[in-house]
């Protein structure tokens, strides 16, 4: 009976590792560009649930756009002078590291004022259900770094593979 329990536990851990992270292409086919609708990106985000460990993939024309991570006040006022982080190369892959809202803008010209800005609300999937469906919800802001740019060659599939291997090795060590 103990062998059956170990096998089931192992399979649950492996499944959780495989479904734990998503890679979202910001704006889908529209990519990261000045939109025709001021709420385009926030409408896009409202249809998704972002979890800690997910990756936002900003695809853009690097001669015309960039991605800045900013504070709530900088986001609201489209202040671009002192962003928390500024990425000028495309694609910009940003891992969501903490719960709560994260604010992104384009610092080129008046692009932010014309709607090239995005808020994502990152939640912790404490349910263990791997819930990437449904609309995003607001969670309290965490205390750590909220988002981190990934190296240009990095992809969510490589992150998923790494998570899978860590879970697999950890489960094997713990159970056997």
Automatic annotation (TrEMBL):
The keyword Cell wall biogenesis/degradation does not apply. It holds the Pfam family Cu_bind_like. Keywords: Disulfide bond, Glycoprotein, Signal. Transmembrane segments: none annotated. The keyword Cell cycle does not apply. Residues 135-148 have a biased composition (Low complexity). GO terms for molecular function: electron transfer activity. Residues 129-152 are annotated as: Disordered. It comes from the Eukaryota. One of its GO terms (cellular component) is plasma membrane. Residues 1-21 form the signal peptide. Residues 22-124 form the Phytocyanin domain. This is Phytocyanin domain-containing protein. It comes from Brassica campestris.
């Amino acid at each position: 009976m103990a062998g059956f329990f170990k096998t089931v536990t192992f399979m649950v851990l492996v499944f959780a590792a495989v479904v734990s992270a998503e890679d979202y292409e910001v704006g889908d086919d529209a990519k990261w560009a000045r939109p025709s609708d001021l709420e385009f990106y926030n409408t896009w985000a409202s249809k998704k649930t972002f979890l800690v460990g997910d990756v936002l993939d900003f695809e853009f024309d690097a001669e015309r756009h960039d991605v800045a991570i900013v504070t709530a006040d900088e986001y609201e006022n489209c202040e671009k002078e002192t962003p928390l982080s500024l990425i000028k190369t495309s694609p910009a892959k940003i891992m969501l590291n903490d719960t709560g809202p994260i604010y992104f803008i384009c610092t080129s010209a008046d692009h932010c004022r014309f709607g090239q800005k995005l808020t994502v609300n990152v939640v912790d999937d404490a349910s263990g259900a791997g819930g990437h469906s449904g609309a995003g919800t607001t969670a309290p802001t965490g205390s750590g770094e909220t988002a981190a740019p990934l190296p240009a060659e990095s992809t969510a599939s490589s992150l998923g593979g790494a998570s899978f291997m860590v879970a697999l090795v950890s489960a094997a060590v713990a159970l056997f």
